[in-house]
Write a structure and sequence with these properties.
The complex is a heterodimer. Chain A is α+β, with helices and mostly antiparallel strands. Chain A is built from 10 helices and 23 strands. Chain A folds into 3 domains: 111 residues, no CATH class; 188 residues, Jelly Rolls, CATH 2.60.120; 71 residues, Phage tail protein beta-alpha-beta fold (3-Layer(bab) Sandwich). The radius of gyration of chain A is 31 Å and the shape is elongated. Classes of the chains: A alpha+beta, B mainly alpha.
Chain lengths: 396, 199
């Protein structure tokens, strides 16, 4: 007991109480946090004290302490003469006690929210940034422009570059000294944790997912086919109709030929599988290695791998959810889920123990902090996470 | 901000030391339930805990001149209660030794009272907080959550409009809980979200 510093006890109790009632200033929150982080014991004390049922039990003990009769009794023992003030006080105390008991119950909800909020003792708390609109555009002369993260897309035109809100992108030395020609090849590239939209010179819209790059010419004028190349990653195309000039997307291993249509190409797979999903219209898939071709119907997905093309019917909503700013997991393994998170949040994923065989379903906005996505996944009770810096450990 | 509490009231301490009965009432009323919570955490026995809390306050009164400030008085009270509780446990152990040789012994030497003391302190602060509410708010909250009355019943009884009742209720809860920030609101949504995870 000699070790006990009553001033510390009083201060910490004040802070915890202020925390429960949300009365703390930022500096006081920091002070409490420092104390909590100072030792495992402290953290344990904090967590046990803000535990709702322990608090309300403590409240019951407090409320039923029989303080008034104990005081009368004590005063008798000490030789005081009982005075009449007690009765008044007793009524008041009894009222407080009842109200306090109710409030501890009401507070219970508050405590639950606070404890599970990304604040104190939350194992999912992190500094991991959410992915955003970011990309680089490499011009024919090798000059690279970083596209503004304040805009969502870029419009390619033979004479000038603009953002999709009309703002002109300054590329003075390029445009003035070396006017773009029909063969000008440009590459737009998104990093891990980035996405961008691009409107090609024919009005075709392309959405690039994270870690993706697309090679295109600044103008299709005078060309028989409108040809672009998806160098890696994932892209969603809304090709503008032009029957005279087919649109061809070239990938490592396949060619997709279209007239006017909406489709998604996913080239993320480590084993070289290319997945093309058709939303509307029709496209022709050609496996370059085997020259095999297949026609896709809306709602179908082709898988090109090696010399094969395989077609399956799929629910297209989850496939294109990324383009609409969502994660939409559909019967996916934890590895598939985590791969998507890794690309968007730029995290390193580590698996501890056997990897869960659970299949995950669910939808959440990509604009959310990763903690919220992880919390949702934990909500399935089949998996847990640990977050340290950029590393997310999956624990079964 | 943390309000300045009872234990910073140096005038009260002075009166206590000078033997004021009223000061004793206040000190006793403040510390007794707090010590009961602390004792119960060690003993798991409320009645004995109440007696021990009373004893410690009687002892403190007898040597009231020795405490230059409330923290020292409080240290003394906690030490007293802790020692008395361990004496009780020791007595109980002797009693039960004949009944069961497997009786668990409390590791008195290793016992760290910090957790139990902070627990008691926090509980007592929650109760003190209630007193800071405006009278009308407190009444409305009591009638709503303790007596389970409807806003209509409360408005009839207190002779105010139903909307006044509701605003008192809201104001009381807000005073107590602080306003929910955006962060907490998001948390609420996330907690509700797993409902859409249909497996």
């Amino acid at each position: 007991m000699e070790k006990l510093n009553i001033h510390v006890v009083t201060r910490i109790s004040d802070l915890i109480n202020g925390y429960l009632f949300n009365h703390l200033s930022d500096a006081e929150v920091d002070e409490l946090q420092v104390w909590i982080d100072a030792s495992v014991d402290n953290r344990q004390i904090f967590e046990s004290i803000v535990n709702e049922s322990a608090l309300s039990y403590g409240g019951q003990v407090y409320a039923s302490a029989n303080t008034v009769s104990s005081l009368t009794d004590a005063k008798k023992k000490l030789g005081f003469t009982a005075n009449t003030q007690e009765r008044k006080r007793s009524v008041k105390l009894w009222m407080s006690v009842k109200v306090a008991a109710a409030i501890i119950i009401i507070l219970g909800f508050g405590i639950y929210f606070y404890v599970s909020s990304p604040y104190f003792g939350d194992h999912l708390a992190n500094n991991i940034a959410t992915g955003k609109n970011i990309a680089t555009l490499t011009l024919a002369n090798g000059k690279t422009i970083t596209l503004s993260d304040a805009k969502t897309g870029v419009i390619i035109n033979a004479s000038k570059l603009t953002y999709n809100d009309g703002t002109v992108i300054k590329t003075e030395d390029v445009n003035n000294q070396n006017p773009q020609t029909e063969s000008d090849e440009q590459i737009i590239k998104t990093p891990v944790g980035g996405t961008y939209q691009i409107v090609l010179s024919d009005g075709t819209k392309v959405w690039l997912n994270a870690a993706s790059s697309l090679k295109f010419t600044s103008s299709f004028h005078g060309l028989v086919t409108r040809k672009v190349e998806l160098l890696g990653g994932e892209a969603y195309f809304e090709v503008s109709k032009d029957k005279a000039h087919p649109f061809v997307v070239h990938n490592q291993g396949q060619e997709v030929e279209v007239l006017g249509t909406h489709f998604n190409i996913n080239n993320y797979s480590n084993d070289g599988t290319l997945r093309t999903t058709l939303i509307e219209g029709s496209v022709k898939i050609k496996n370059i290695a085997s020259e095999k071709t297949a026609l896709l119907k809306p709602g179908q997905q082709s898988e090109v791998k090696g010399i094969a093309i395989q077609l399956t019917n799929v629910d297209t909503e989850p496939v294109v959810a990324w383009k609409n700013g969502d994660f939409n997991f559909k019967d996916e393994s934890i590895k598939e889920v985590m791969n998507k998170l890794a690309l968007w949040y730029n995290i390193e994923v580590v698996y501890e123990g056997p990897v869960s065989t659970e299949r995950f379903n669910g939808k959440i906005s990509r604009a959310k902090n990763i903690a919220e996505v992880l919390r949702m996944l934990e909500g399935t009770k089949s998996i847990k996470f640990k977050v340290e810096g950029r590393r997310v450990t999956v624990i079964q | 901000m943390i309000p300045v509490g009872f234990e910073n009231n140096s005038v009260l301490l002075l009166e206590f030391q000078e033997g004021s009965e009223q000061a004793f009432d206040q000190v006793f009323t403040h510390f007794h339930p707090l010590l009961c919570v602390f004792a119960e955490r060690i003993l798991h026995d409320q009645t004995t805990g109440q007696d021990i809390a009373q004893d410690s306050l009687i002892k403190a009164w007898k040597k009231r001149k020795d405490f230059p400030n409330f923290p020292q008085l409080k240290s003394f009270l906690y030490t007293c209660v802790r020692n008395a509780c361990f004496n009780e446990l020791e007595k109980a152990k002797v009693k039960t030794r004949y009944q069961s040789t497997l009786e668990k012994t409390e590791p008195a030497d290793d016992y760290n009272p910090l957790k139990d003391i902070i627990h008691a302190e926090v509980v007592s602060r929650i109760f003190a907080q209630v007193d800071t509410l405006p009278e009308q708010c407190r009444k409305v909250i009591q009638m709503t959550f303790v007596d389970g009355k409807s806003p209509k019943e409360i408005s009839d009884e207190l002779n105010v409009s139903v909307s006044t009742v509701n605003s008192h209720k809201m104001r009381g809860l807000q005073l107590l809980k602080g306003k929910l920030s955006d962060r907490d609101f998001l948390t609420v949504i996330v907690i509700l979200l797993p409902g859409i995870w249909n497996k």
